[in-house]
Design brief:
Blueprint lengths: L20 H10 L1 E4 L5 H18 L11 E4 L6 H7 L2 H11 L3 E11 L7 E4 L7 E2 L5 E6 L10 E3 L19 H5 L9 E3 L6 E5 L4 E3 L8 E10 L3 E2 L29
Antiparallel strand pairs: 1-9, 2-3, 3-11, 4-10, 5-12, 6-9, 6-11, 7-8, 7-10
Helix pairs in contact: 2-3
Length: 263
């Protein structure tokens, strides 16, 4: 277990390992919520060191080829320190508390913005990229391993957009693409959420969001655990996670590849 000590000062995680009901209500209304102190300071530092070592060895494997950020997927299968966070029971139970139904891990990813990358990850939804069928709202836990103020590339959300389903995948490098897909989203309020190391945001797979550029001397390191409805089936679409598995359209995405360690 790598999560914070129950009841730790400055943490939103209660002694019973759950978050207050007002955070659950905020997540369901707005499609995102910040949970402070998911990690204790010493734990965040240990995970940061593990992430840096893994990035140094595997940076060339990044799925993002345009230099906006480094994206390394299914790190939990190859790096023991970050595996502890991905499979952490308390984090999964909080995700289920927010979602309101059973979940499995879809995949994790290490997302890194290098110092002075000076490029935004533009507004998009996550769910249109995933080959899922028959599922309720997925959600992601975006855990900050370093302090992430706006100038280091924290995220900005479009509240309430978790209900905007059916859009095509968006171009992460085109600042107008999400708004071309749904022009009404352009005029919604935007909420920027800076995080301390060890804080986390949970956001729905349909909630529109973007990440600001990193204009600082320190890399922005975030570890993201993506959770899906336990009943999710494979749609048949292409994806780096499912392509090697030999699954057929309609198959349940379950088993050891998509674990539920908190069950």
């Amino acid at each position: 277990m790598v999560t914070t000590t129950p009841g730790q000062p400055g943490s939103d995680v209660r002694a019973d390992g759950r978050v207050p009901e007002e955070l659950v209500a905020a997540y369901r209304e707005h499609g995102f919520v910040r949970v402070r102190g998911v990690l204790a300071p010493g734990q965040a530092e240990r995970l940061r060191a593990g992430a840096e070592a893994f990035l140094a060895a595997h940076r060339a494997e990044s799925l993002e080829k345009q230099g906006v950020f480094s994206q390394l997927v299914n790190v939990w299968q190859r790096e023991q320190t970050l595996r502890e966070l991905t499979l952490d029971r308390r984090l999964g139970r909080i995700a289920e508390q927010l979602a309101g139904f059973p979940l499995r891990i879809w995949h994790d990813q290490l997302l890194v913005k290098e110092p002075h990358n000076n490029a935004a990850t533009e507004f998009h939804q996550d769910r249109p990229y995933w080959p899922h069928a028959g599922d309720r709202l997925p959600l992601s836990a975006w855990v900050a391993l370093v302090d992430v103020p706006p100038e280091r590339g924290c995220m900005t959300f479009l509240p309430g957009t978790q209900d905007r389903t059916g859009l095509r995948p968006q171009d992460l490098h085109d600042e107008d693409d999400l708004f071309a897909a749904d022009p009404s989203l352009r005029w919604l309020p935007r909420v920027t959420v800076p995080l301390r190391a060890g804080d986390c945001t949970f956001h729905s797979g349909y909630t529109g969001h973007m990440a600001l550029p990193n204009r600082t001397d320190q890399a922005r390191l975030a570890h993201v655990v993506i959770y899906m409805d336990e009943a999710t089936r494979y749609s048949g679409g292409a994806h780096v996670v499912t392509d090697p598995l030999g699954v057929a359209a309609g198959d349940r995405l379950d088993g050891d590849t998509f674990p539920r360690p908190w069950a």
